[in-house]
Amino acid sequence: MAYVRTKGNQVLLVHGKRNADTGSVEQETLFTFYTKAEVQSALGEHSKLFRDLLEHEHPTLRLDWLAIDAALGERLQDLPDVAPEHHNKAAAELRSALVELARVTWELTPSSESAAKRLIDDNRTAITLIVERLDELLAAPAPEDPDLAPDSPSLWRQARKTRSLPLEGWEQLDDLWDLGNYDEVEALATLLAEAFPMFADARSYLGLVAMKRGQFTLALQHFQDAEARGRRQFPRRVAKSQYWTFHNTRPFLRAIMHQIAAHNMLKQYETALELCDRLGGEYGQDISAETLRAPVLLNCGQWRQACQSAERVAGLYPAHLFIAAFAWMELLDHASAFAHFIQGALTFPSAAAQVLRVPVPKGFEMDARDHDAGVALLADIAPYLARHASSVHLFGRLWAHPMVQAALLEAEQARRRMRVDRSGDPRLREQSQQLQGMAHARKVAAAVAAD
Fold it and tell me: pLDDT for 202-241, tens place per residue?
C-alpha cells in the first residue's frame, strides 16, 4: 500500500515492503516532491504523466490515486515554493557533462600527438554515435502541440529513481543490430551500460555480439551479468504466467534464454538443459524452454527426446521440423525423417537450403522470417551438423529429387497467389496451408520412396 509522508521539507510517496530476510517492513521511496509546484502539477495538468511514470516504474503495485491525491493536497503546506537545486538537477548534469567533454576534447591534439590520435581511433565508433545523437538533439523541433508532449516543471523523467534507458536508446540498438553493425552495437551498448547501470539488456547485446564473433565464454559472462542486473528489477508478486507481460521481467528472462544458447555452443549441454527446466518450471516460459531445449537435445544425441521437443513447437517454429527430421534419421526412421524435412522445406525453403548449403531454387521470393530461421538454426545445431555430414548428404539427395522440387515450386506458387490476392479468398490460404502440411509432406515422401 503506497502512502504519503513528510521528511523535513520534502514530501515522499512511499511503499511498505517486507524484507525477505528479516521479516520487518521497510519503506521504499517511490517518488520525492521538493516544491509546491511539483505537487500542484502532479494533481493538475500533468497528473496523467505523473501516474504513467509511476505505474510504468512499479507495475506490480496497486496505487490508490484518490487517496494519494488527497494526501498530497494535505501536505502542500509542508513544501517550499522553490527548490532551485532540484529544479536545476537536469541542467546541472548536462552542464557538467559538457564541461568535462570540452576539457577532454580540447586537451587532445591528434595532429601533433600520436597517443592522442590512437585514443581517438580506439573510441571512434563511440564518439561517432554520440555525435549522431547530439545532431538529433540539435535538429529536434519543439513539439507543435504541447498536449501531445507534456512535461513537468521538475523534469520528472530525469528525476525518476531508476533512470532507466528511454525508448530511443533501445530502438537505436535494435536498428544497429538488425543492420548487422555489430561494432557499433558493441560501442553503444558499452556506453549505455555505464550510463544506465540497471539497463540489463545492454549486457545481453554485448553477449550477442560476442556470440556472433564466436567468443562464447565471453558471451556467457555478459549474459550472466545481464541476469544478475535483471534479477534486481524482477517483481516479487507476479504470477508466472505474467512474467513476459511486464517490462521489468523481460531482460532477466532474455538473459536466461541467451545463456542457454551460449552453453549449447560451448557443448555444456547438461547446464543448458537445466536452464531450460528453470525457464519453464520456475518462470513459466514453457514454449520458449521447449524451443531452446530441442537443439540442445539434438546436439547431445538424445534423439527421441529431441523429436518430441521439436514436434511440440514446430507449429509455431517451423524450423524445428528440421531438428525433428535429423533426430528421426538418427533413429533410423527414414519415412518420418523425410516427411519432417519435406514439410520444413515446403514451409521454409530458404532455411532448408542454408542447412544443406545449396542455393534456393530460382524464382522463389525470399521471406525474411524464413531466412532468419535458417541463420538461427545453423547456429543452434552447428555441433550436430559438424558430426553428421552423412545425414546432411542424404537430405541433400532428397532435396534434389524432382518430386520434391516440384512440390517446393507448387507450394511457392500457392504462397505467391495468396500474397497478390486482394479478394480475401479463404480458399487460397487453405490451399497454401495444405501444400505445407504434414499430410502432403508424407505423401511426397512416400512417392519419393516408391520411385
Answer: 999 999 999 999 999 999 999 999 999 888 877 666 677 7
DSSP conformation letters of 103-138: HHHHH--TTT-HHHHHHHHHTHHHHHHHHHHHHHHH
Task: Round the CA-based radius of gyration of the chain to a whole number and report it.
Answer: 28
Q: What is the DSSP string of 324-363?
A: HHHHHHHTT-HHHHHHHHHHHHHH-HHHHHHHHT-PPPTT
Neighbours of 64 (CB within 10 A): 13
How do residues 113-165 score in pLDDT, each as one tens digit? 788 888 888 889 988 988 888 888 888 787 665 554 445 555 555 555 455 66
**For residue 247, what is its C-alpha cell?**
517490462
Q: Are 418 and 429 in contact (CB under 8 A)?
A: yes
The pLDDT of residue 373? 94
Residue 335, C-alpha cell as written in the block: 519415412
Q: How far apart are CA 243 and CA 235, in angstroms?
A: 9
8 Å CB contact between 447 and 406:
no
Task: Give 118's strand partners.
Answer: none
- Contact between residue 235 and residue 59 where contact means Cβ atoms under 8 Å apart: yes
The dihedral over CA atoms of 403, 404, 408, 414, expressed in degrees to the nearest 10, equals 50
Cα distance between residue 48 and residue 136, in whole Å: 27
Task: Find where cell 516460459 sits.
Answer: 285
Name which of 196, 193, 197, 177 is nearest 185 in CA terms.
Answer: 177
Q: Which residues contact 14 (CB under 8 A, 6 or more apart)?
A: 2, 3, 4, 5, 27, 28, 29, 30
Q: How far apart are CA 418 and CA 155, in angstroms?
A: 51
Question: First and final CA of the chain: distance in angstroms?
Answer: 73
| Unique residue bearing C-alpha cell 495538468 | 45
Residue 24 gets which letter from DSSP? Answer: -
Q: Which three cell numbers stand for residue 346?
A: 515446403
What pLDDT, on a 0 to 100 scale, did the predictor assign at position 161?
47
- Other CB atoms within a 10 A radius of the CB of residue 324 amount to 28
